[in-house]
Amino acid sequence: QQQVKQSPQSLIVQKGGISIINCAYENTAFDYFPWYQQFPGKGPALLIAIRPDVSEKKEGRFTISFNKSAKQFSLHIMDSQPGDSATYFCAASMRSGYSTLTFGKGTMLLVSP
Amino acid sequence: GAVVSQHPSRVICKSGTSVKIECRSLDFQATTMFWYRQFPKQSLMLMATSNEGSKATYEQGVEKDKFLINHASLTLSTLTVTSAHPEDSSFYICSARGTGDSDEQYFGPGTRLTVT
Lengths: 113, 116
Prior knowledge:
- The complex is a heterodimer.
- Chain A has strands at residues 4-7, 10-14, 19-25, 33-38, 45-50, 56-59, 62-67, 72-77, 86-92, 102-103, 107-112.
- Chain A is mostly beta strands.
- In chain A, a hairpin with a 6-residue loop joins β4 (33-38) and β5 (45-50).
- The N and C termini of chain A lie far apart (38 Å).
- Chain B is mostly beta strands.
- In chain B, the strands form 2 sheets. In chain B, strands 2, 4, 5, 6, 9, 10 and 11 form a 7-stranded mixed sheet that branches. In chain B, strands 1-3-8-7 form a 4-stranded antiparallel sheet, with no helix packed on it.
- Classes of the chains: A mainly beta, B mainly beta.
């Protein structure tokens, strides 16, 4: 049973546009929600993360919106650039010393020039 | 800060041989390290969780005798793929979580294993 559902699978956005990737989770015990960016042949890099005590977190062009009642969270990339073209993974975990990350299936983003 | 390295970055080995992959946290101490494998165009699949000084916890379906994990110090974990077969060819990625009450995991650059 997939606990974190991510959509869309792929996304094409024009340069300067807004990229939006959505994730939904099932386990209400999750309380840490990070987003990772991965370029081909590289390991994932932490972009931004949120905890359920806030509904939004912004870092530069990246914003996470969190809806606890709907059990959904999304990544918004403002002013998307060709350098943002990568695969993005949402994840979730429970706050505990031994908690593991549950990943979504990933979204391949292509930002056209 | 929070840099994780992996060595080697690429390895090609013959079927039946063993391969060791190292994962190091360079500027922090990692109480817990994780090993993932990733097939092309797929998500990361957790293989095992290792805590320094104790036995690794393997995910369901992962053969502990085939994928040997050693977390001997707070900065080093190793994954040994024993008797490798072509189906073990994959991208192996480690991550590390620091000491203290931190949820963040920092990922290594990955190791591309090709078994011929």
